[in-house]
Structures are given as structure tokens and as C-alpha cells.
Specification:
By secondary structure, the chain is α+β, with helices and mostly antiparallel strands. The chain has 2 domains: 132 residues, Orthogonal Bundle (Globin-like); 126 residues, 2-Layer Sandwich (HIT family, subunit A), CATH 3.30.428. It contains 12 helices and 5 strands. Strands 1-2-3-5-4 form a 5-stranded antiparallel β-sheet. The radius of gyration is 21 Å and the shape is globular. The chain binds protoporphyrin IX containing FE.
Length: 270
């Protein structure tokens, strides 16, 4: 008997019919939504072929039968999107349609978060143009203290996930990529919800990997104001237990190999 986490997204969604339904709703939304007018214009008038291609692709993308591959060969998504001018605005319009279609169909919040994250990564990878807005919008810059204390693991849809370089504890921070963000309660509602889902996913990954006695989750920000949320796997045997970890033990940096292993294990579990 498989555990829920061992089912592919394809199985969790409901298989072939569910993928068809998602794609149909996605393209209906692209037809309807005002914020999708510019990406709708890139597509043929008749969306029948586009629907078939995306359905076949997503079947494999979700871990089901690789229909696109079987019927049309390697997807080469980036290359196939080069004829279209895709900037951040086009990416966001595409994702807005997909997010709405997913939200209408998927009740399992963890699955929803995973799917949104995977779509975000793929859509972002397809960007091939800089927009005017990209030039003028403030870009997110990681605080130098966080940059030096931690190493990149992966990007989720909202947060960067980073390993703190202290091998005394499995210690990971989530950093929402929102310029100027300092407090959780000042994020907009959608970001607050996304942060909760990403924090849950990280806690579950760390729990499965390290089997801690307690997960400590905290946002302090007294020293480094940029919003970052600590996720620390705590053990009754660790040197600071039961106190919070700050100021108790000197940090012990990882050696290169141990750090790479830890990063890989967390990334794979997310
Ligand atoms: C980032 C924003 C995106 C834009 C503006 C965009 C736009 C387009 C357009 C205009 C086409 C051609 C339609 C056709 O040939 O019928 C296309 C095809 C396709 N797109 Fe996208 N797309 C985006 C993101 C994505 C993402 C994230 C995925 C997958 C998760 C995806 C999967 C596909 C597939 C499988 C095809 C068919 C490729 C082929 O066989 O030629 N697209 N896309």
C-alpha cells in the first residue's frame, strides 16, 4: 500500500480525464481573461491543437504516460517557445490562467502548492525577453548577511530556500522574494497563504529527513530586517535543547561534501 506522498501528481490529480479537464479549463480561461489577451493573441484562432499538445505534455509532466514524447518527440519547450516574445508579464498571464484552473480543480493544498511551484519554474525558464517593467521594477536582492550565512537550495514559487551554514542543526531559511518585505502580516493575503504552504512543505520534508523531536519555526529579524523564516530541526540531544538555539553554541560550518549532500537531500524531498 503506497503512502499518499508516493503517488505521482498525475495519480493524485485523478489521471487522464483530470489532465484533459485542467487543460480545457486553462485554455477557456485564456480566452476569457482580460489579463491574458496578449498571450491569447500568440496562439492560433482555433485552440484545438494547442489543447491536444498541452494535454499530452502535461500527462508526462505530472508523472503519467509521456504522451507528447511518444507522439511528437522531445518537447524542447524552450526552443519551441522562442518564436514568441515571452517576458515576465507573459509568464505571469500564463500562470494566472493556470493557477485559476488549478485552484478550481485541486482541493489538496500541498499538491496545489507543488504544482504551482513546478509551473512557475517551467514558465520562468521560457522567458526570452526583458520587458520595460523589468527594467524599472525594483529587483529582489538578498541581504548580504543572509547571503554569507547561507547557501541556496532551491526556489519555490514565493520563497528562496537556503541552508544555514551551521552543522549543529539542520537549519533552513525561507526568504520570500518580495522587495522590502519585513513582516509576515504585511505581505498580501495570497503571499501569506503561499508562505504557509511553503513552510508546511519544508517542515514535512525536514521531518521526513531528520526525524526531529520538534520543528522550531520563527521569524525574528532583529539583526537582519529582510523577512526570512527559520526552520530548525531540534533534538532533545542537541547542544541548545530545550532553549532556542541563538547564542548558545558557536556555529560549526559544514565541510563541502556534507553541505552538498544536505542540500541535495532537502532539494530532492521538496
Ligand atoms: C510562459 C508563458 C507561456 C507562453 C506565453 C506560452 C505560449 C505558447 C504558444 C503561443 C504556443 C504555441 C501554440 C500552438 O502551437 O498551438 C505554445 C505551445 C506550447 N506550450 Fe506554451 N507558453 C507558455 C508557457 C508554457 C508552459 C509553462 C508550458 C508547460 C508547462 C507550456 C507548454 C507548451 C507546449 C507543450 C506547447 C506545444 C509545443 C509544440 O508542440 O509546438 N507552455 N505555448
Amino acid at each position: 500500500m503506497k503512502k499518499p506522498s508516493e503517488y505521482s501528481p498525475y495519480e493524485q490529480l485523478g489521471g487522464d480525464a483530470a489532465v484533459r479537464k485542467l487543460v480545457d479549463r486553462f485554455y477557456d480561461l485564456m480566452d476569457e481573461r482580460k489579463d491574458a489577451i496578449s498571450i491569447r493573441a500568440m496562439h492560433p484562432n482555433d485552440l484545438a491543437d494547442s489543447r491536444d499538445k498541452l494535454y499530452e505534455f502535461l500527462s508526462g509532466f505530472f508523472g503519467g504516460p509521456p504522451l507528447y514524447h511518444q507522439n511528437r518527440g522531445h518537447p524542447k519547450l524552450r526552443m519551441r517557445h522562442l518564436p514568441f516574445s515571452i517576458d515576465e508579464a507573459a509568464r505571469d498571464a500564463w500562470l494566472a490562467c493556470m493557477h485559476q484552473a488549478l485552484e478550481e480543480q485541486v482541493d489538496d493544498q500541498l499538491l496545489l502548492m507543488q504544482l504551482k511551484t513546478n509551473f512557475h519554474k517551467t514558465a520562468h525558464h521560457l522567458i526570452n525577453q526583458k520587458s520595460d517593467a523589468d527594467m524599472s521594477e525594483p529587483t529582489f536582492i538578498l541581504h548580504p548577511q543572509l547571503e554569507s550565512d547561507s547557501t541556496f537550495i532551491t526556489d519555490l514559487s514565493l520563497c528562496s530556500v537556503r541552508l544555514i551554514n551551521d552543522s549543529n542543526y539542520p537549519w533552513v531559511v525561507l526568504v520570500p522574494r518580495r522587495e522590502g518585505a519585513i513582516e509576515v502580516y504585511k505581505l498580501d493575503q495570497a503571499d501569506q497563504q503561499q508562505l504557509t504552504l511553503e513552510s508546511e512543505a519544508l517542515c514535512k520534508a525536514m521531518e521526513a529527513l531528520f526525524k526531529p523531536d520538534k520543528m522550531n519555526v520563527a521569524a525574528l529579524g532583529n539583526m537582519v530586517p529582510q523577512l526570512h523564516i527559520h526552520h530548525i530541526a531540534r533534538f532533545k540531544t542537541d547542544s541548545a535543547w530545550p532553549a532556542p538555539i541563538w547564542g548558545v553554541t558557536h556555529s560549526t560550518p559544514y565541510d563541502q561534501e556534507a553541505m552538498q549532500q544536505r542540500i541535495k537531500s532537502i532539494k530532492d524531498k521538496l
